[in-house]
Amino acid sequence: MADEMCAGLGKEGGSRVQMLLSYVDKLPTGREEGLFYGLDLGGTNFRVLKVQLGGNDKHVISCESREVAIPPHLMSGSSSELFGFIASELAKFVADEEKGTSLSNEKTRKLGFTFSFPVRQRSVASGTLVKWTKAFSIEDAVGKDVVAELQTAMQKQGLDMHVAALINDAVGTLAGARYYDEDVVAGVIFGTGTNAAYVEKANAIPKWEGELPNSGEMIYEKLTSGMYLGEIVRRVLLKLSLQSGIFGEIDHTKLKTHFHLRTPHISAMHHDDTPNLKIVEEKLEEILEIASTSLETRKMVVEICDIVARRAARLAAAGLAGILKKLGRDGCVDKHRSVIAIDGGLFEHYAKFSKCLEATLYELLGEQSSKSVVIKHADDGSGIGAALIAASQSQCR
Ligand code: ADP
Ligand code: MG
């Protein structure tokens, strides 16, 4: 993992681990001051935030936010439709938040934009979309600068706002956690997708052209994310059912439907602690229309969930160990703390996944090294992180 990360920093396409540069060369310190907005576009919904920063370690004085669901048809429509919708919701939020205040007469508002898809950046406030992931597929946006798209849409809404930084959720989580704790070395997301961001020494990035920035980030995906775990279990169950009839004579329509069994479903079955696996029984019936299962069969379903979640968690832990190794922080004992800030629905809600992830990381590092490594759940770093980076990038210190 660490070797692949090095290779990915060496040249474009030089590794199976895609290392993307974030161009963020100033992480927030706590001294930032003023009003900043954040916009977080991740999976199925987006969030808008307004953050008032106090400066001089007064940190966040106030933070207001609103979550908006993205209408499914916009996920595969046109770029201008998607960004038009986002800009109009953002404009509504700003109007509501600033009602009765004199802010609207002041200078241009500053926005940090968290856009959690692979983007190739050439500066901190621009980036072309490499490809869509998760549920999105808006062909005409691929290859375009998503900041320019958003900026144009905001202009059409008459919204006086400037995008000061474009980041992804992992960079946002890193920034949000570092703002409060300077020992944070990486921001990691286990949600619909998986990715991680860490601070790299500028001179360790051969592929960087031009003036050197101080940061870097990497993205990897081994079908370990929330998007896939339910689907993997579905495929295993389908194969078992077709090959050995474990569920008896059933209608396979639901079991054959791609992505029909979702990760929250397998999480619910996996955590079922009722004596007769009542929840497993209900889920199989409700979601897959598999009725009258025996306790033995239900136990096997739980075991399959366990195998799939464990595989994902152990691979994810290997990724974290790789980052620590790359940073030279996999062997140090008690010298300095290394905090890994993690966010994302999978990590937050799938307890057996997060427990296994943590246990595996400590297993890989060994008892001594583990003492200095801390895993921290960073709740909603990605939204606030965007506003914080907008602040750190636009203030000269
Ligand atoms: P994103 O911002 O990428 O959309 P989130 O961090 O919001 O992702 O996480 C959403 C993902 O978390 C879902 O795709 C799902 O796989 C997973 N998830 C949500 N709730 C649960 C749950 N109860 N158990 C397991 N996984 C869950
Ligand atoms: Mg998210």
UniProtKB/TrEMBL annotation:
Name the UniProt record assigns to this protein: Phosphotransferase
A Pfam cross-reference name: Hexokinase_1
Family to which the UniProt record says this protein belongs: Belongs to the hexokinase family.
EC nos: 2.7.1.-
SUPFAM superfamilies: Actin-like ATPase domain (SSF53067)
Signal peptide range in chain numbering: none
Keyword Nuclease: no
Gene Ontology MF annotations: ATP binding; D-glucose binding; fructokinase activity; glucokinase activity
Source organism superkingdom: Eukaryota
Entry GO CC: cytosol; mitochondrion
Catalyzed reactions: a D-hexose + ATP = a D-hexose 6-phosphate + ADP + H(+); D-fructose + ATP = D-fructose 6-phosphate + ADP + H(+); D-glucose + ATP = D-glucose 6-phosphate + ADP + H(+)
InterPro entries for the chain: ATPase_NBD (IPR043129), Hexokinase (IPR001312), Hexokinase_C (IPR022673), Hexokinase_N (IPR022672)
Keyword Endoplasmic reticulum: no
Pathway listed: Carbohydrate metabolism; hexose metabolism; Carbohydrate degradation; glycolysis; D-glyceraldehyde 3-phosphate and glycerone phosphate from D-glucose: step 1/4
Sorted UniProt keywords: ATP-binding, Glycolysis, Kinase, Nucleotide-binding, Transferase
Hexokinase C-terminal domain segment(s): 213-391
GO annotation, biological process: glucose metabolic process; glycolytic process; intracellular glucose homeostasis
PANTHER family xrefs: HEXOKINASE, HEXOKINASE-8
Record-annotated Hexokinase N-terminal domain positions: 1-179
